[in-house]
Amino acid sequence: MIHQTMNQSTEARVPRVRFAPSPTGYLHIGGLRTALYNELFARHHGGIFVLRIEDTDRTRYVEGAVENILRTLKWAGLTPDEGPFLAPDGSVQERGAYGPYVQSARTEKYRHYAEELLGKTEEASGQSYAYRCFCTPEEIESLKKDRASSDAAPLPGLVPHARNCRGLTGEESAALAAESPYVIRLRVPDRVGRVEFTDSIRGLVRFDYSSVDDQVLLKSDGFPTYHLANVVDDHEMEITQVIRGEEWLPSTPKHLLLYRALGWEPPAFAHLPLLLNPDRTKLSKRQGDVAVEDYRAQGYLPQAMINFVALLGWNPSGDREKYSKDELAREFRLEKVNKAGAVFNREKLDWLNGEYMKEMPDEELTEVVIPFLRIDGVLTEVDGGIKAADGSPVDREALRRSVALEKGRAKTLKDFAATTGYFFTSKVELSRDMIPWKKSTPEVAKERLYGLRDRLAGLSEKYFSDPKLLEAEIIPFVAERGWTNADTLWPFRVALSGRERSPSPFEIAWAIGKKRTLERVEAAISLL
RNA sequence: GGUCCCAUCGUCUAGCCCGGUCCAGGACGUCUCCCUCUCACGGAGAAAACUGGGGUUCGAAUCCCCAUGGGACUACCA
Question: Which of A25, A176, A335, A500 has its CA 20 to 30 Å from the CA of residue A221?
Answer without folding.
Answer: A25
